[in-house]
Structure formats: structure tokens, C-alpha cells
Amino acid sequence: MTTTTTESPLISAAELHDALQRQPVLLIDVREPNEYNSAHIPGALLCPLANVGELDPLCSSDTPVVLYCESGRRSRMAYETLASRGFKNLKNLEGGIQRWKQGGYPITGAVSAPISLMRQVQIVAGSLILTGVILGFTINPGFFFLSGLVGAGLVFAGVTGTCALARVLALLPFNRPQVK
Predict the structure, then answer these.
(1) Taking a C-beta distance cutoff of 8 angstroms, is the pair 30, 69 a contact?
(2) What is the helix, strand, coil percentage profile of the chain, to 5?
(3) Is the pLDDT of residue 4 over 60?
(4) pLDDT at 179 > cutoff 80
(5) Which candidate among 91, 99, 101, 164 keeps its CA 20 to 30 Å from the CA of 73?
(6) H helices of the chain, where?
(7) Among this protein's residues, is 69 annotated catalytic?
(8) How many whole angstroms from its chain centre is CA 175?
(9) Which one of the listed residues 47, 59, 69, 163 is annotated catalytic?
(10) What whole-number distance in Å separates Cα of residue 9 and Cα of residue 88?
């Protein structure tokens, strides 16, 4: 009878902290640049999830690669992408940088970084819907069209994974900080 062991793709914040003390680890932050600038693990490289498919496998390196994002969801998708492309010695930080922060481990980042792009989308879309409803009841029922249009845009974004509002907001100067 043969017993096979499957190594977990997850690494806890404590295990990562210990590993960083003992050996070189390639940390890859798969969040967006504004998220990275607000807080990241010291030494982490930025590679947004949309660009992860462009990374080349480190065939000749035994250096562990640890992916992380805000909560671990996006880095799990990045993990699956890279694992299918032949990356070895790959881990996903369980709970993302939120868990890292909860553990009291060091972070680096700008205090004045803008809020996340998805929160900006929620604020703008919610404001447009609320404005359409208020104006529809008080000024002219034609303003309900504005709320319906934004709602249809949110449904389209959810179904296709493409958010036009997020793309427009990402072009704003305060969402394009210089990554150092």
C-alpha cells in the first residue's frame, strides 16, 4: 500500500514570518498598486492578478514563492494560475495581508494611500443610484433611469468580470501612484 501526502498550498502568517527569518522567500503581492502602496509586507514584489499569467516559472530556483492579497481569494486564483504553469515551491498566504496584520507582523506602506478601487466603485455606484432615486421621487421620474443604468452596469460587471467604472476610476491620478 502506497501512502501519498499532499502538501498544503497554504502557509500561515506565523509560518511565513518564520520562513522569512530563516531563508530567502519571494513574496508576490497580487493586489492593485494602490492597495500595495497602502500596506504591504516588506520585500514583497507587486504583480497584480491580471499580470500573474505573464510571470515565468523559476525553473532553476529552489526559493519558495509566497503569494498574497488582501484576504487570500485573489492570491488563490494566482496560485492556481502559476501552479498550472509549472511553478514549484509555491504557497498562498492564508487569510492574506489581513491575517498578517492581525498577527502583528511588520508592514510597509503610505499612510495617505487612497482607498481600494472596489470601495471607490461601491461609493460612486451607490451615490449615483441614491441620487437617481432621490431625484426620481422629487424632480422627475426620468431620473430613475440613472439608477437603472448603474444597476444594469453592476450586473454586467458581475457577470462578465469587467467593470467599466473601475477602469475609469483607475485612470484618475490619485489611483496611479508611483510604486517604489
Answers:
(1) yes
(2) 50, 10, 40
(3) no
(4) no
(5) 164
(6) 13-22, 33-38, 73-84, 96-102, 117-138, 144-160, 164-170
(7) yes
(8) 14
(9) 69
(10) 11
